[in-house]
Design goal:
The complex is a heterodimer of chains A (421) and B (376).
Chain A (H helix, E strand, L loop, with lengths): L1 H16 L4 H15 L35 E13 L5 H4 L15 E16 L2 E10 L5 E9 L6 E9 L21 H6 L5 E10 L5 E9 L25 E11 L4 E13 L18 E13 L4 H4 L2 E13 L5 E14 L2 E10 L10 E13 L2 E12 L2 E16 L7
Antiparallel strand pairs in A: 1-2, 1-16, 2-3, 3-4, 4-5, 5-6, 6-7, 7-8, 8-9, 9-10, 10-11, 11-12, 12-13, 13-14, 14-15, 15-16
Chain B lengths: L25 H36 L3 E5 L2 H11 L3 E5 L14 H8 L3 E4 L9 H7 L12 E3 L35 H18 L4 H25 L7 E4 L5 H7 L2 E5 L10 H14 L3 E5 L5 H10 L2 E5 L12 H16 L32
Parallel strand pairs in B: 1-2, 1-3, 3-4, 5-6, 5-7, 7-8
Helix pairs in contact in B: 2-5, 5-6, 6-10
The chains are: A mainly beta (421), B alpha/beta (376).
Chain lengths: 421, 376
């Protein structure tokens, strides 16, 4: 319904925005003149050819209120409209949990998937600080990350302390708005935790003295019990204050420039902690004192192709593949899941993505065999806004397939810092 | 779970792992953990100490000042000033748009080994440089340190927008601190060279004499070339031009050219049919015969506009290394000035009477007082 209502002005606006060629120029100017006479059409700004920006103006730009010492602040608003499964119960039947920042299946239709407030600043000559607050699905304020990171340690060391996302894998390190898809990969909530592997902890890393980029990270986190007590969580024993219940990770990230335009990044990851398995036990025992140790290991590979002279071709490819295996000791199962996602930029402002999720390789009762096939189409009018169509089909043996469909909009206000590559 | 606990039956559960009742499992698991972690710990320790040894060794061996710049023109100027006492490299290539350089981790490696980082500033590199510097693990080049050299502190910044910060993005991708494309005019090149000479001397006091002498030699050569360029470009005074992106302001002011419009409707916004139509009308009315653009922008639209208006498109290098012939700063500016002079042709004869001249800028705060409102 909303498609018909907005189609005509959208189409005319889209026509006017197209880069002009000789014949199209005439047609588009005519179409725009016709559309301009309709009320309510968002026309292009008038007299924008000549920017009368005075030179050497003494007035400089200051944030309202003159906040000279304020950190860089930004706000990202991510709204969605869509549904999980055409028929009620379709999605629940797949048995797949949603990630914390996926649109909420309990409130389908219109939603604000995430509202992120970001503050970054240099603290002093030795430290930088960052705070990221998030309100997922309009349901309460959460701390996504809040940490300090050193900038002046010797011997290529760096320490990060606070609450932050683990460096494990690739998707786990990313905030929601860095993705080219509306939903997280299926394995996020199953293996890493509903919000990924993030929590209070400490990270030490060293840039290795190799001719190529290689960094080794060692982390430790206190991860508490999950919100969803009906599921097994890889790590959840952080409620107890002894080292045996912390989560430890070791990550080696490497990067190679294959050519001037193509690059490859490889991550080798391993993490260990205490399984949290409260399913079916009432009352839920505190801290999982008898829960076995889990090992979560895997790799991530990112291939990127982007011509060095970006503005001449406006095409790029980014292909990410991850796979993780979780082993529960003491006779527990070994289960695995992964995904592969190519994202192809085919025009200055357009990106097409496809993601194939495979859950349950090998499969056991915590991770049944499921497949997800997702497509996304993203339109980015500028670096600060994005519009996306996302469609996903979830299938598996013994269940009927479920379709997921979302239209997503993202806007960013303020000085959000540049993201890691 | 201890025996006797109520278990609510749940389908699809594996049978409970076998536990010997009463036996302690903690020491078995502890040993298992230790055995798993030990080789990793050993590897980590070995790598750490090897790295430290290699790092200290390399630092002692490298006696040259390691200078890293963000654009090739800054690297060329640094090479003029530093000569054989420095090793200089640029993070981006001359034919890349300096706003959008992929922030690859291999650049972190380059920054990690730098003694000095010279950058343009004014938020030109804010899309890619800050996380690289933060992750470089190099205390020498962090903000505020002697090795962090911001070129924009040496020059007079122009085109500072005067709108409230929260309205800035509505003007497109405008740089709030001023126009950062400042490295072409000779005055700014001299200021940059002098800045680098001073800062290199602080970092490498033994070479202070060399840096100052080379900077003075560069200044002298620059003064001679600037006179030559001014003479060659005298006929360009008052000529009207259109540029693709609002990045040629410093050059056009130096050469006395009059920028009347831009192919981008707003900085960073791709050209639209409506805006292009307006621009063509304006170019015909005002008699604009030159379109200047960096050679990394797509040419097709500029060519169409040129065909329609009879103007000439100049796809110019904006940085050293953007074309094979621009190996030094002098080559670069020589090439640009020659290309514009040749394309502009001789000064036009006195113009025919025109209808009441359009102001070349809409009235606004600050007004068009600085621009002539009629033919040159």
């Amino acid at each position: 319904m909303f498609v018909e209502a907005f189609a005509v002005p959208l189409l005319t606006w889209w026509l006017a925005q197209q880069p002009a060629d000789a014949g199209a120029l005439e047609r588009a100017i005519a179409a725009d003149a016709a559309a301009g006479s309709q009320a309510g059409t968002p026309g292009p700004p008038a007299s924008s050819t000549l920017e009368a920006v005075p030179s050497s103006a003494q007035a400089t730009v200051r944030p309202p209120g003159g906040g000279l010492m304020n950190p860089s602040m930004s706000v990202i608003v991510d709204g969605t409209f869509g549904y999980y499964g055409r028929h009620a119960g379709d999605f629940a039947a797949t048995g797949l949990p949603v990630a914390g920042d996926d649109p909420d299946p309990g409130h389908q239709g219109f939603g604000i998937q995430e509202l992120e407030l970001a503050f970054t600043s240099a603290i002093d000559p030795y430290l930088e600080g960052a705070v990221f607050l998030t309100i997922p699905n309009l349901g309460g304020l959460e701390v996504e990350e809040a940490y300090l990171v050193t900038t002046a340690l010797p011997w290529n060391l760096q320490i990060k302390a606070g609450t932050f996302r683990s460096q494990l894998g690739r998707n786990n390190t990313q905030h929601l708005h860095l993705q080219s898809f509306t939903r997280r990969p299926l394995f996020t909530a199953l293996l890493f935790g509903a919000d990924g592997l993030r929590g209070p902890g400490l990270q030490a890393s060293v840039l290795l003295p190799l001719p190529w980029f290689a960094t080794l990270y060692a982390e430790s986190f206190a991860i508490g019990p999950p919100d969803d007590l009906t599921r097994v969580a890889s790590f959840g024993g952080g409620g107890r204050p002894d080292p045996a219940h912390l989560v430890y990770t070791l990550v080696l990230e490497q990067f190679w420039d294959l050519t001037e335009n193509a690059s490859l990044a490889l991550g080798l990851n391993t993490a260990t902690g205490r399984l949290f398995d409260c399913a079916g036990t009432t009352p839920c025992p505190d801290g999982g004192a008898h829960d076995p140790r889990t090992f979560l290991s895997g790799g991530d590979l990112v291939y990127r192709w982007k011509p060095a002279n970006e503005t001449s071709t406006y095409a790029s490819l980014s292909w990410t593949t991850e796979f993780f295996l979780r082993t529960i000791t003491d006779g527990g199962p070994t289960e695995g899941a992964g995904y592969t996602e190519p994202v192809w930029q085919f025009s200055r402002r357009w990106y097409a993505g496809a993601r194939f999720d495979l859950v349950g390789l090998p499969a056991h009762e915590n991770l049944p065999r499921r497949q997800g096939f997702a497509l996304s189409l993203t339109f980015a009018p500028s670096e600060f806004s994005r519009f996306r169509l996302f469609a996903q089909e979830l299938t598996g043996s013994g269940i009927s397939s479920a379709s997921v469909l979302f239209f997503q909009t993202e806007i960013s206000m303020g000085a959000h810092g540049a993201h890691p590559y | 779970m201890p025996p006797g606990t109520e278990v609510t039956p749940r389908p699809e559960r594996l049978p409970e792992p076998h536990r010997v009742p009463g036996a302690s499992t903690r020491s078995r698991r502890g040993r298992g953990l230790f055995r798993a972690i030990l080789p990793l710990l050993a590897l980590g320790t070995a790598v750490f100490f090897a790295g430290r040894a290699a790092f200290t060794g390399r630092a002692a061996a490298a006696s040259k000042l390691q200078v890293v710049t963000t654009i090739e023109t800054l690297a060329a100027l640094a090479a003029e000033v530093g000569g054989p006492r420095i090793d200089v490299q640029s993070l981006s290539r001359g034919y890349q748009d300096p706003h959008f350089v992929p922030a690859k981790p291999s650049l972190i490696l380059t920054l990690n080994r730098a003694d000095a980082l010279v950058y343009v500033g004014l938020d030109l590199e804010s899309g890619w440089l800050p996380p690289l510097v933060q992750q470089s693990r190099n205390p020498r080049i962090q903000a505020g340190q002697p090795g962090n050299i911001n070129g924009s502190t040496a020059i007079r910044v122009e085109d500072i927008p005067s709108v409230p910060a929260d309205q800035l993005r509505a003007l497109g991708d405008v740089h709030p601190l001023g126009n950062p494309h400042y490295w072409l005019p000779p005055d700014n090149a001299r200021a940059l060279a002098d800045l680098m000479a001073t800062r290199f001397s602080e970092l490498d006091p033994g070479g202070a004499g060399t840096y100052q002498a080379r900077a003075q030699a560069f200044d002298a050569k620059l003064a001679a070339k600037a006179t030559e360029w001014r003479a060659r470009a005298a006929q360009l005074r008052g000529r009207k031009v259109v540029t693709y992106h609002k990045s040629w302001g410093y050059l056009t002011r130096w050469l006395g050219l009059d920028e009347v419009g831009y192919i981008e409707p707003k900085p960073g916004i791709p050209p639209t049919a409506f805006h292009t139509g307006e621009l063509i009308k304006l170019m015909k009315q005002a008699g604009v015969h030159l379109i200047l653009m960096e050679n990394y922008y797509p040419r097709s639209l500029a060519d169409i506009i040129a065909r329609d208006t009879g103007a000439r498109v100049l796809a110019l290098p904006a940085n050293v290394g953007a074309v094979p012939g621009a190996r030094t700063y002098f080559d670069l500016v020589d090439g640009i000035v020659n290309a514009i002079v040749e394309a502009a042709g001789p000064a036009p004869p006195s113009p025919l009477p025109r209808p009441a001249a359009q102001p070349s800028a809409p009235p606004g705060p600050g007004g068009p007082a600085a621009k002539p409102a009629g033919p040159p």
